[in-house]
Write a structure and sequence with these properties.
binds inosinic acid, alpha/beta, 3-stranded antiparallel β-sheet
């Protein structure tokens, strides 16, 4: 697929962003993402029947996944956000800092962490341990994307949208240096952009 396929919506002014089209390939179209999120939502509805859900999103990447997954759920949910910092550029530092904490007390709550992507899993392992220390009834993870290394992670990921190859991807909330988050689809970034 050509570069233009990543900007399928008429609402994005192609001429305004043309200089930034350093993308090589579309991995998932808007439609594929929405279809998969709907499937995940059905599974979550079944698994959490009769239990309250607190969706916890990790800013900023999970904004799009949270917006669409939460609206695909035909039931009540609460939503809260955390912001953590673990990355500079494309390489994981393993250092996690809380930039914004939750507003919600987790005691007795069923927490479902909503993630955009799990790469090494370092961020998530730390996050889950941190959330579990707050006395919730349960903590599970839903992620749209998972990279190969994450399969070796000790933390179990209950809901996975797509397993993807080990490439740097952008779009649908995922950024490179804060750009490309507003793409409706997900694509790979040309290596010359970040190498
Ligand atoms: P991990 O700790 O290595 O699992 O990294 C998780 C975080 O790194 C994600 O929440 C993203 O913010 C960022 N990240 C990892 N891989 C990518 C990618 O391919 N594109 C954009 N961001 C990524």
């Amino acid at each position: 697929m050509g570069k233009r396929a990543l900007w399928q919506s008429d609402s994005v002014d192609i001429s305004r962003v043309e200089a930034d089209l350093d993308l090589t390939q579309t991995l998932f179209t808007e439609e594929q993402i929405q279809t998969r999120l709907a499937e995940m939502a059905r599974q979550i509805e079944a698994d959490y029947e009769g239990r309250d859900i607190l969706l916890v999103g990790v800013l900023k990447g999970a904004v799009m996944v949270m917006a669409d997954l939460s609206r695909a759920l035909n039931r009540h949910v609460e939503i809260d956000w955390m912001a953590v910092s673990s990355y500079a550029g494309t390489k994981s530092s393993g250092v996690v800092r809380i930039l914004k904490d939750l507003d919600t007390d987790l005691a007795g709550r069923h927490v479902l962490v909503v993630e955009d992507i799990i790469d090494t899993g370092l961020t998530l392992s730390w996050l889950v341990a941190n959330l579990r220390s707050r006395g919730p009834a349960s903590v599970e993870i839903a992620t749209l994307l998972r990279k190969p290394e994450a399969l070796e992670m000790p933390v179990e990921v209950k809901y996975v949208g797509f397993d993807i190859p080990n490439a740097f991807v952008v779009g649908y909330g995922l950024d490179f240096n804060e750009k490309y988050r507003n793409l409706r689809s997900i694509g790979t970034l040309a290596e010359h952009v970040y190498s």
